[in-house]
Amino acid sequence: MVTEVYPETTEIHTFAGFWHTMWSKCVFQLFRSFCLLINNQKRRMEMYKSYSMEIAGRTLTVDVGRVCAQANGAALMHYGDTVVLSTATASKEPREGIDFFPLSVEYEEKLYAVGKIPGGFNKREGKASENAILTSRVIDRPMRPLFPKDYRNDVTLNNMVMSVDPECRPELVAMLGASIATCISDIPFDGPCAMTQLGMIDGEFVVNPSQEQWKNGDLRLTVASTSQKVIMIECGANEVPEARMIEAIYKCHEVNQTIIEFINKIVAEVGKPKHSYESCAIPQEMFDAMKAIVTPEEMEVAVFTDDKQTREANIDAITEKFKEAFADNEEWLAILGEAVYQYQKKTVRKMILKDHKRPDGRAITQIRPLAAEIDLIPRVHGSAMFTRGQTQICDVVTLAPLSEAQKVDGLDENVTAKRYIHHYNFPSYSVGETKPSRGPGRREIGHGALAERALIPVLPSEEEFPYAIRAVSETFESNGSTSMASTCASCMSLMAAGVPIKRMVAGISCGLVTGDTDDDYIVLTDIQGLEDFFGDMDFKVTGTTEGITAIQMDIKIHGLTRPIVEEAIARTREARLFIMDTCMKPAIAEPRKEVGKYAPKIIQTKIDPAKIGDVVGQRGKTINAIIEETGVKIDINDDGFVSICGVESEGMQKALKYINTIVTDFEEGQIFEGKVVSIKEFGAFIEFAPGKEGMVHISKIAKERINHVEDVLTLGDTVRCICLGKDKMGRISFSIKDCPAE
């Protein structure tokens, strides 16, 4: 029997079989994927942990394992309705060719967090705001010392603000989130550390204040701590006395201990084992070889000088000796720069701690030579120069109408404008180097903000001094603590510009060198660059005779004991009073009574807020007409305060007269001066101010009878009129002939 095969049928059967097979495979793959998804989700849910604690009457919740599983560490932070995602990531290998720990800290402000769409054409967030940069620095400063000094893997701590509750500041949540994400990661870190913010309202401390309390209180203090010591302080204050400030610092330290206990609980349950890394420490045998070539005594002579250039020349000569000696050892040559740095560091620290000798020969509490002068820059509104040793700052103040205040667009809706702006510049020539200027970096922005905080508490109110103020500190020479020199120079420059500040402000920095025990330390007044580089602390404090206005403390060790903090604060008070009395006051003892010759002058008046629309006019027609005619600038706020800014007194007085006329209701007996703007058969219309007109009947123009208005008046004439009150039809009428002579 022969079976006939039809090709068409075979093709159909083959095709159908193919799709049946494919369908079976697809169903199997879908089922397999679904099972994997369920297992992954189950595993993810098993890893997901949530932890909560109460801080300042609000609940802090930390979600671990819920998001960002591929980061080394991640924490989704909730404090009230504020939400911040904090992550910590590290590269798998160290970065080659560097002699520092490459840590990057980011604080990302997403405007959707406050229900805003970014401005501009792109409609997306651009470069970091000044607040974001300053917050990143505050997170960086306490955490950096807790990483291993010889760790060279890139580490990034990213903090993304996703929701903002005005009662719970996102900056604080990001600080805690960065610490938690790093602690639970496998990145080597000697934590935990915790941070607390403290405000002061009516003399009472407020732990973790709201945005409004932070802005309007007398204290804005951030303190970071380890389980034993204070590790970072950042502060702005309205002349808070030193004893009260120490009390506030340790109030924060106390709260930090409860947070550290909370973090330790999280780490114990979900923390990853810390990974090993390749150490980049300098071999001891290399140090021994270097000491045989250049003895510690010779190194001491090389660094013992008060001239930075001389010291650098000495170190360059020593480095050349080492290069010649190690010419055949490529491994040692590759790390020679770091080895010389470490040799200098050991030498300087031993000199200070054991011998009580400073590199420039000063006593432990002695301040470098001081000098101050004002008015060195002509035609600017105010200028001053402050010199302390080889640190020199020239500050220039510019005054402008309030309309030129800096607009601020960020997550804090309580802050929309800055009336006082302080900018700090640090060109390469100030340290004898050469490199192109690329605009201010994070350090420059941070130094400017510190000097700004230092002076804000003594500035006059807008009602007392209706100006926007910009101070620019130009670093002419730098050898340590230029930010404190900027504070001194800016204070004198403001006084020279005629800004009626309440009290003089000065600033100084203290350093620290520590030994093997907590009791083995020495605090240095007015540290220079070398003592900053090789020391353990840079404790900057600004203030008046009455109290502290700003603090910024950076350290390179694992914290400060209370005696060190108290001694540093006492030293800085003593030093800043000395600077004011011996240097600043002889240059300028008090603010000038008037602003400078080239500064704009401002007249301020108050009008009924209901009359603001009359002054502005439809689409700004009235106010623009006044500005065009008088050549002044005019600012009006919602409370009815009007600021008239100009250089010529005549134009300012004319603008003031116009505004007063516009807001004045015509009443019988009032006398006005105006311009003829229209002539009719029955009379003339007189404009007393832009948008403010009145009519003089033909019978009220001249004492004698006239047949035509043009017989007496022409367009553009300036005339004086007296208000006669309302006529029979309820209209206001004026008279020229009944106006009394001047």
UniProtKB/TrEMBL annotation:
GO terms for biological process: mRNA catabolic process; RNA processing. Pfam families: KH_1 (PF00013), PNPase (PF03726), RNase_PH (PF01138), RNase_PH_C (PF03725), S1 (PF00575). It is found in: Cytoplasm. Mg(2+) binds at D532, D538. Its cofactor is Mg(2+). Residues 669-737 form the S1 motif domain. Its EC number is 2.7.7.8. Keywords: Cytoplasm, Magnesium, Metal-binding, Nucleotidyltransferase, RNA-binding, Transferase. One of its GO terms (cellular component) is cytosol. One of its GO terms (molecular function) is RNA binding. Its main location: cytoplasm. It catalyses: RNA(n+1) + phosphate = RNA(n) + a ribonucleoside 5'-diphosphate. It is an enzyme of class 2 (transferase). SUPFAM superfamilies: Eukaryotic type KH-domain (KH-domain type I), Nucleic acid-binding proteins, Polynucleotide phosphorylase/guanosine pentaphosphate synthase (PNPase/GPSI), domain 3, Ribonuclease PH domain 2-like, Ribosomal protein S5 domain 2-like. HAMAP family: PNPase. Involved in mRNA degradation. Catalyzes the phosphorolysis of single-stranded polyribonucleotides processively in the 3'- to 5'-direction. Belongs to the polyribonucleotide nucleotidyltransferase family. This is Polyribonucleotide nucleotidyltransferase.
